TrEMBL record:
GO BP terms, alphabetized: potassium ion transport; proton transmembrane transport
GO molecular function: antiporter activity
Protein name (record): BnaCnng73770D protein
Entry keyword set: Ion transport, Membrane, Potassium, Potassium transport, Transmembrane, Transmembrane helix, Transport
Chain residue ranges for the region called Disordered: 549-570
Signal peptide region: none
Membrane-spanning ranges: 25-45, 51-73, 80-101, 107-132, 171-193
UniProt domain Cation/H(+) antiporter central: residue ranges: 246-382
PANTHER family found in the cross-reference section: CATION/H + ANTIPORTER (PTHR32468), CATION_H(+) ANTIPORTER 15 (PTHR32468:SF26)
UniProt cross-references to InterPro entries, sorted A to Z: Cation/H_exchanger_TM, CHX17_2nd, CHX17_C, CPA2_transporter, Na+/solute_symporter_sf
Database matches in Pfam families: CHX17_2nd, CHX17_C, Na_H_Exchanger
Domain Cation/H+ exchanger transmembrane: 2-189
Membrane topology type: Multi-pass membrane protein
Amino acid sequence: FIAICVFVVRPGISRIIRKTPEGENFSEFYICLILTGVMICGFITDSIGTHSVFGAFVFGLVIPNGPLGLTLIEKLEDFVSGLLLPLFFAISGLKTNVAAIQGPATWVTLFLVIFLACTGKVIGTVVVAFFHGMPVREGITLGLLLNTKGLVEMIVLNVGKDQKVLDDETFATMVLIALVMTGVITPIVTVLYKPVKRSVSYKRRTIQQTKPDSELRVLVCVHTPRNVPTIINLLEASHPTKRSPICIYVLHLVELTGRASAMLIVHNTRKSGKPALNRTQAQSDHIINAFENYEQHAAFVAVQALTAISPYSTMHEDVCSLAENKRVSFIIIPFHKQQTVDGGMEATNPAYRLVNQNLLGNSPCSVGILVDRGLNGATRLTSNTISLQVAVLFFGGPDDREALAYAWRMAEHPWISLTVLRFIPDEDVTDAASTRATNETNRNMNYVNTFRAANAEYETIVYIDKVVSNGEETVAAVRSMDSSHDLFIVGRREGMLSPLTAGLTDWSECPELGAIGDLLASSDFAATVSVLVVQQYVGPWAQDDEMDLPDSPVHYHDQPNAIYGLEDPS
């Protein structure tokens, strides 16, 4: 039977997988055929004297790992986990007759078996851990985890009882052993093993703190290949040079389905020539190839590709951990909505929004949420004229200063035009708010003055002061700029209360973008303007940006051109 499954059934299933085009769903006929095969294998093993569960188990083992297995999980997991498993455990509980355990000797034997089983595994694991240099606490924890029981043990016990191998007393004893051992392990491990995350101490957690003559490290998060062109164009505009190169960590975010644990895969960016085994790997290959091509054509750029496979609820932990380990200064992640054919914005996957929200709340460095509305194709930097019109809306605060710092770097590119629109409250509003934000106001003024002094000679950089008194005037000023720019860079301004944005949050659809970011990303705004919403890191490792204010930025006009497709303007 096993030979038939391995040499006949498995090749047949592999043929079904090959006949289904990549990216398309398997037909219902194939799914029904697989489920019929499960029942047939169960009947065969039952007829030859083995329990039917082993036939289904062997059939499951011969199914190749890949899209077919994931499809079966998606279609059957809710039904099996929500109905069949509870029924199975309920029936097992009804079969367990605790009253059949009679006499104190039996109970003593029960506890003795539990003690010896746990102790033996713990001692054996500790000895092995000692010889491999592991801490004793981790060895004990691993030994305790080996004592947990699950579905397989209960299946074996039920098979034994159905086959009359186990009587009522033995069956009840074994079920209680499995129940007690599984029940006590979790609280013991929770108390005994408390891993402490070692925080990496590094200071350059923001773009503003990154020195102009040092490497800028960026972590790029990608959900689908559709996100790639826009992000590459944004990286091109970031202008890597010999004096300030860019190290890019590309993280493909994949939902965990059908696996026991999360995974972080480090890829070799060089092509291996092997075909993709499944849809996820095919997407990763497309993403890696795109960034590899960018690395080959752009100077002063280094790319490292990775794939994180984890649930959406904990995906931000992988991003934060990688950013901290690699000492990243800036994380770029796509917005959960993408532009439709009619120019509106539609959510591709609501779970992406959860990832963005969790990342904003836990990031160890600055974060930028990229809203793409045409930046992926209409503004490629390949000509000798201004190809990208960038605007910064500056209200003040750490997020706005970080947005200006990033735009400052981009503005040194010869084919990028930057407009900085600083919103200044009128005298009445200033008098009412002066006693609450003196320090922030001084920081804003110092940074803006330094920016203006360093860029006064550049014709491609325009600075405008706009005096407004309320949210309506702010919206009118923003709308007057939407048709003449390709990319807006704004601060998220979380927790920053200002009369200049009063009332804008009342109609906010995506609070994670902030009041201004949500306005720019809304469907009723310009359909061709992309938006980058920036949040500056302000955690325990943040430095006082006023103390770290650079004397002047690096002037990339004097450096070799590093943008793909560009020639030195000189």
